[in-house]
Design goal:
Elements: E1 10-14, H1 22-30, E2 39-43, H2 50-64, E3 69-73, H3 76-80, E4 85-88, H4 94-107, H5 119-143, E5 148-151, H6 156-166, E6 170-174, H7 177-189, E7 196-203, E8 206-214, E9 217-218, H8 219-227, H9 258-263, H10 266-275, E10 278-279, H11 283-286, H12 311-330, H13 343-352, E11 356-363, E12 376-384, E13 387-390, H14 398-420, H15 423-432, H16 441-454
């Protein structure tokens, strides 16, 4: 990394044609004073969306009168030369491969609400993405060895673990789920977002908040009081939830209520009531770590408000992202509001030294004492000119700690399978995974073989 705030930063986006990520990440960059003169390099294996993305960067620069610049390329090594920061948002095989991740396990009785982190879908997605990431990492070792890789691709934990295990590249995973929980807590408890201070342990999409304070008060005590008082369910929130937050409003009134927000998070609040710690990710992610929530008896998560997202819905979402970019072009001004993503803020702290605390995914150096050293964990971290490191030592309640340990074992086996290309390693990961491992053993073997065969065009290491 080229030090100093006076040096413009070269920010490379691998997957730079992403309609979901690039538009909002670039607005965050434009809203960050230390980055307004950055050179943005957009790389993608598909050249088709790159010109429109470059137009968006140029549009933002004109609207703001800032020296932000952009170039595009389909040559990855060309993109990485002298990069300061490499943001990666890719999906190897796209929807064509992910369709198999969801539909094959469903035929074997495994319903997945997301299918991109754990369970059969998370494992096979990792098998596809990890070799691509390692290739990026080896290119970075030659073209920009001092750069940080900022990964926003799923499955985040196994990808980051593969990078830190197999390459010398400094790698961090950035996810918005804990930040969204902080936002929800401010609405439920009438708090200032800046005063919500969390202690977190766990892995991506199963981060567990073990303590929370708002100002000088115990926020868990405030939350218990709210959950135990049904009379407050009808109270309106200070603001309605924005579109795209991922929750459905159950009440008939015109505005969101506390009860609406509680209903959209009933799974995490049930675990909080039972065990005294608060899982922080959205319920659709959490359900896949606890197979008892995704059963026929629960209407495959329906009783808990968990929706099974289909490939067709994801394809519609892609169209909405494209429409959203065109709407952003049509707006008279570039938004000053933060997107809720952490990329620009993390880069700013690394560049300027301005310290921030944020939830990030790093190798375990004691911040999550329930879990082995070096595995990638999610915790509250400090980011400044000295780099990124865990802030706290947070212990989970025993039952959640044990679940985390099992998940970590499955994730370690997944990384091993992705690197070795051995089918038995994939079966071992499936067996250890809580969601996949509940199957009949012979059926699990057949499902694993079917998944590997159906996605073989994206799995060269298994050839």
């Amino acid at each position: 990394m080229r030090p100093g705030v006076d040096v413009s930063q070269r920010i490379v986006v691998i997957g730079g044609g992403s309609y979901q990520w690039v538009p909002k990440l670039l607005v965050d960059v434009a809203n960050t004073p230390s980055l307004v003169d950055a050179e943005i390099v957009l790389h993608d294996v598909d050249p088709a969306p790159l010109p429109r993305m470059a137009e968006w960067v140029e549009h933002v620069a004109r609207q703001r009168s800032i020296p932000l610049s952009v170039r595009t390329t389909t040559d990855r090594r060309d993109a990485l030369v002298d990069a300061d920061h490499v943001v990666v948002t890719i999906s190897t095989g796209g929807f064509a491969s992910m369709r198999h991740d969801l539909e094959i396990p469903r035929r074997y009785g495994i319903a997945q609400s997301v299918g991109d982190t754990v369970g059969p879908g998370g494992i096979t997605r990792a098998l596809r993405n990890i070799p691509v990431f390692l290739a990026i990492g080896h290119d970075m070792e030659e073209c920009c060895p001092d750069a940080w890789m900022l990964n926003i691709t799923n499955p985040m934990t196994t990808i980051c673990r593969a990078m830190t295990r197999e390459t010398s590249i400094r790698t961090v995973g950035l996810c918005h789920e804990v930040t969204i929980l902080q936002f929800f807590l401010t609405l439920l408890l009438d708090a200032d977002f800046r005063e919500v201070d969390l202690e977190v342990t766990g892995v991506n999409h199963l981060p567990v908040v073990t303590a929370c304070r708002i100002g000088g008060r115990d926020a868990f005590e405030l939350l218990r009081d709210l959950l135990d008082d049904p009379a407050r369910a009808g109270e309106e929130l200070a603001m309605d939830l924005p579109d795209g937050i991922g929750l459905r409003k159950p009440s008939a009134g015109p505005h969101w209520t506390r009860g609406d927000l509680i209903a959209g998070n009933r799974l995490k609040f049930e675990l909080f009531r039972r065990f005294g710690a608060l899982p922080a990710a959205g319920d659709r992610h959490l359900a896949e770590f606890f197979p008892g929530f995704l059963t026929e008896e629960s209407h495959w998560g329906g009783r808990w408000g968990v929706h099974l997202t289909t490939i067709e819905e994801r394809e519609r979402h892609q169209g909405q992202y494209q429409d959203g970019l065109e709407q952003m072009f049509a707006e008279p001004e570039i938004s000053n509001l933060p997107s809720g993503e952490l990329v620009a803020a993390a880069i700013d702290s690394l560049v300027t030294g301005h310290p921030r605390t944020m939830p990030l995914n790093l190798p375990n150096a004691g911040q999550c004492p329930d879990l082995p050293d070096d595995v990638v964990v999610e915790s509250m971290c400090t980011v400044d000119a000295d780099g990124i490191r865990g802030r706290d030592r947070a212990f989970a309640p025993p039952v959640l700690a044990e679940q985390l340990r099992r998940v970590v074992v499955a994730q370690e086996l997944t990384v091993q399978a992705a690197v070795t290309g051995r089918r038995d390693d994939v079966l071992a990961a499936m067996l250890a995974d809580p969601l996949a491992g509940r199957m009949d053993f012979d059926a699990l073997g057949r499902m694993t073989d079917e998944l590997l065969d159906a996605t073989r065009e994206w799995l060269p290491q298994f050839a």
